[in-house]
Amino acid sequence: MKRNVLLVATGMIIAIAVLAALRATAWPFKEGETPTLAPLLERVTPAVVNIAVIGSATESRNPLLDDPFFGRFFEGPDAPLAQPSVPRQSIGSGVIIDGDQGLVVTNHHVVQGADSIVVTLSDRREFNAMLIVSDAGTDVALLRVMADGAAFSEIPIGDSSGLAVGDYVVAIGNPFGLGQTATAGIVSALGRHSGVNVESYEDFIQTDASINPGNSGGALVDINGQLLGVNTAILSGTGGNIGIGFAIPSNMVREVVQQLLEHGNVQRGRIGIAIQDVTPGLAQALELATDRGALVTQIEPGSSAEQAGIEPGDVIVAIDGQPIDNTADLRNEIGLTRAGGSVEVTTMRGGERNTVRATVAAESAGGAARARAADPASVSLLAGATIMELPADHPAYGRVRGVWVSAVSAGSAAARFDLRADDVITGVNREPITSVSDLASALNDARPPIALQVQREGRSLFLLVR
Questions:
Q1: Domain 380-465 bears CATH identifier 2.30.42.10
Q2: Which residues are catalytically annotated?
Q3: pLDDT tens across 25-58, in order?
């Protein structure tokens, strides 16, 4: 009995201590000790602005195309037909990060194509704003409020690397143009990638705090009032919030803003490799020691990766000690490292870990190759693909050894494996292929899953054939 009383008393003491700690540090309280976010919002909302953009856009059959939040999700060959350019007006949000300079960070897609920008503060004052510079790859833009001699409230940029799933966060913005609105939730996940644009740099914070059209560019803050993210997108089949919102981490925002201010653009880095995600199927087919990471499929001759000793088939599992789970992780770590610096690259090869240092060079664009038909052949496992010897007039002839895919029928087995017309098949499970008969023999001898190595538009990758 005494022991039970002691346990109850101990539990009460711990509970009181926890409440006292919350009151003294993280969670804000009003008089009377009622839990509330009001004191927090009183501090941070003056630094969150509503943004109205007037620009030009094409008139579309779908009205969502005129919204900067949703318009980018309708790009591509299947986009609805558009009419000649017409004036448009759209809304978004922004965060003042430097009150003395009047610097406002928002999303690139909010201000893209803007002819004029007006920001409205929480006290309803309106000011014209100028777009300083923006970066489409990270969806970050930087504005300056045009108000000589005026000083504004600002939100300090926090350290998003300290975030954990379950942390409380508050989203502040201008949803649907209703005016400044605050919603609360938790961090639902970290390191998310939307998959909308493979050329973008994404490492999103996912939150269930309500984010809707118009929230783009707004603040995601912790309960201490630190800016930990800039709201940028939602996942929704209806256009409204379903509890899955994304924000750009503050550490990425800080790095991008610094580079935009110093250089006028983002100095993206590269080390001269082509990569693809490691999957359990590829790990089995290639007998890899890990099913996570970025698989190196090609090394650019003379690149820093080649000089560092990185080889095709290596799996990059860490950069500067930070784990790499997929190609998006690696793209962010290398692409947002300033050219001229260096990184420690940890790879897995034959079950052994190895760490090398590689210099980061400036990013450059690659090209694509085209070729014409020759005498076709067929391979049963790749039904639907027309495969032939590499013709002498093919741009890759003499540089790449392999066989050429001249056509792929829609809905065929080859199409399901993502084989495409103009691919050059160079290997099966790392064994080189130099002729159609080589390919047929290798596929007949191999047991699924099979890793098919191809050259596509100047880069090398593996396709999984089951």
A1: yes
A2: 109, 139, 216
A3: 445 555 556 778 888 888 998 999 999 888 655 4
